[in-house]
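Our working data are protein records whose layout never changes between entries. Instead of coordinates, the fold is spelled out as a row of discrete tokens. Here is such a record, shown just as it appears in the course material:
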Amino acid sequence: MESFEPKWDVGEIDLEALCNGDLDRPLRLRVMLYKKKGRQDVCIGECETTFRMILNTQHGSNGGGFGLVKSIKKNSPAGRLNVELAQVIDLELEQEVMIDTFNMSCSLDDSSRASEDNPYAVDIASLPPAIATPASATFQDYIDDGLLLDFMIAIDFTSSNGDPRIQGTLHDQSPGNLNDYEESIEGIGVALAKYSEQCTVWGFGAKFGGVTRHLFQLGDTPIVHGSVEGILQAYNGIFQSDLIMSGPTSFDQVIQAAAVRANNHKKSGALRYCVLLILTDGMPQEIEETKRKLGVYSSVPLSVIFVGLGRSGFGAMYELTSQQPGAQRKNSTFVEFRSHQHDPTSLGRNALKDMPNQLVEYMVQNNINPRNK
């Protein structure tokens, strides 16, 4: 051995090979003493961790590393393994989250497509620019060139929403009236349906079979085609399952799943732009990690719209969508439902006001110009 304090050069490894793309999968790290002339190598020390902990330990309070033991079973101290640099350097190496699916029926129709007669309809192309862009191209130019929006909705099923069987709670399932989640889907979904052929509907924060899920499918198929009514049926159908509202609030897996889809569009060269609508009654438990993800994902064709429901203090959500370290562009918006609950078109306008400019800014940054310009 040349040193009792060895340092290793920086290396790269595919995240799939390391942990099957799962940042929370248990890993065992071993420091081995290399023996020459065919003799068996010796384990000096080992520890158990996850790749997420490796990423976080660089800035944590544990000294930036992990204690080693001679054997996991014996737990005898054997030194320390310090982490000087650990990072994910490419979006496609990030975890592609497995989406839990549950079998339920969902019939679809086109009765809620955006139209001039629909009171919820908002014409996105007519929204005034929220920010100045350096391009002469507009949102409508890209739509005219054939761009389609890939629309995703993620709905909060954490226990803070209240019991859906009780009237007046956020997921109130009483017949005859729309609850706050349904009104948000109507107010924003109708506007987006005009530019999107399909929608993906996810949930997060519920427990199934004793396990809390932060990303699961609503409806019996991964895609709901062209109908806000279909989205609402997929949403209401989940209450016929064995769902138990749980927690904590976490957006990370739904944002990451949307970003993976956006990155696939980017790699394929398809003229697509993803819009993720997150409906929630609270703030994420790991807000700094959510900020980091939004910053990383500013490089893909994705906008994230957060709508806050209920009477929580949403100050952290305004901060989340205004401060994204390392972001190439702003790619998120936050709006409070209660400020617009008596005016559905106002909710749609304010939730969507930034998205057209975010789309154009992404296209400009990536030298994607409409053919008619």
